[in-house]
Amino acid sequence: MSRLTKRVVDNLRPDPAREVFVWDDEISGFGVRVQPTGVKTYVVQYRTQVGQTRRMSIGRHGVVTTDQARTVARKHLAHVTLGDDPSAARKAARKIMTVAEVCDWYLEEAEAGRLLGRRRRPIKASSLKMDRSRIVAHIKPLLGKLPVAALKLADVEDMQADIAAGKTAKPRVGSRGGATTGGEGTAARSVSTLRSLLSHARRRGLIDNNPAMGARIFAGNVRERRLNETELRAFGLALRSVAQEGEHPTGLAAIRLLLLTGFRRMEGLGLQRAWLVERRAIRFPDTKSGPQLRYVGAAAVELIEAQPTVDGSPFVFPADWGDGHFIGVVRVLDRVCTRANLTEVTPHVLRHTFASIAGDVGFSELTIRALLGHAASGVTQRYVHLDAALGLAADRVAAMIAGLLDGAATMPSPLDVTEIEPALKQFA
């Protein structure tokens, strides 16, 4: 042990397998906890008068200084000497925590990797970004001041109705960023976020019950929009037309790749060249469904390899400035659709179009799910003949879409898939 100082705490290194505690040699019970994720939190540990061991968090290193944490630890330990139990007092205070305070607790704990989401893994940064947006824009303004203990199911459903009616909607400010919108979809997702974070708080003993659990949320709208044969030809013509007029080439290429692969919007935009591997496959280190090997057609590979490189950028579609990837695909897509006289076309519609064309060709639901990244994790890594089958399927779907975009006179007839489907059906 040694006296804890900022330098000492800064130099502490995490153990990937477990939490590590380092104790101060000046104040007994004062220490710092180092999570496997690298998050460092000051703590104070003591025994109550009945011999129970308590441990309290004081604050995160970087937010609280070492000297500030030392001062708080001294105060807590002084109360213990007088027979008090600071941990019990804190738990009593939690009984009157507001919705806003529980939201703040959830974001802090989740960002530190201490809360698990899907597949019992730490909640992803992308999910937290959306949760934070809903908390700040909708949940806090409508329910933030209410004590959780007083929250009723009716309050939650009233929040949903208010969001759907646009009570929390705000216009876009400045030249960047988006507007805060209402609507049933936003309202339903906000209730889901509140229900989830309250479940975490209840499981961790922060609150006694979750009043959002019984809330009825709006049913989602089934997205059935796709581009049909005529629309695909018009879309392809519009792509060529706006390209000749100087439309953003990176945006146009990204749109075409989404159509040729069925990738989700951020999978396509965040694609890195190093992820392209043998047998025309993309090895995603992470997706909505975890790490995946996704097969793509020759037309998609040619498009990827044709994109100009930018020194220092790993991305297929680099940003115009900065070291990130291109993000303006929706605006480019809107301009293309205006030229093609098409409405209600989003990146998800492009993904759905890919799936629908695969169905038109004659591929089964299992094959389509595999092409879209819905297959069970690890299947394509274990069976070489399945790899080949998916590669052929991806190639045929991409070739058909490319032909329609480039002005094919007629819709190609469904192709013979008898050599592909049997290899896939045995894994259904």
Keyphrases for this structure?
four-stranded antiparallel β-sheet; 8% strand; alpha+beta; 428 residues; Double Stranded RNA Binding Domain; hpI Integrase, Chain A; 47% helix; three-stranded antiparallel β-sheet
Structure description:
The protein has 428 residues and is α+β, with helices and mostly antiparallel strands. The protein has three domains: 6-90, Double Stranded RNA Binding Domain (2-Layer Sandwich), CATH 3.30.160.390; 99-203, no CATH class; 229-425, hpI Integrase, Chain A. Helices cover 47% and strands 8% of the residues. The protein has helices at 6-10, 66-81, 86-94, 99-111, 125-143, 153-164, 184-203, 229-244, 249-261, 265-269, 298-306, 329-340, 347-361, 365-372, 379-382, 384-405, 421-425; strands spanning 20-23, 30-34, 40-47, 53-60, 276-277, 281-284, 292-295. Strands 1-2-3-4 form a four-stranded antiparallel beta sheet, covered by helices on one side. A hairpin with a 3-residue loop joins strand 5 (276-277) and strand 6 (281-284). It starts with 5 loop residues before the first helix and ends with a helix. The model is unreliable at 377-385 (pLDDT under 50).
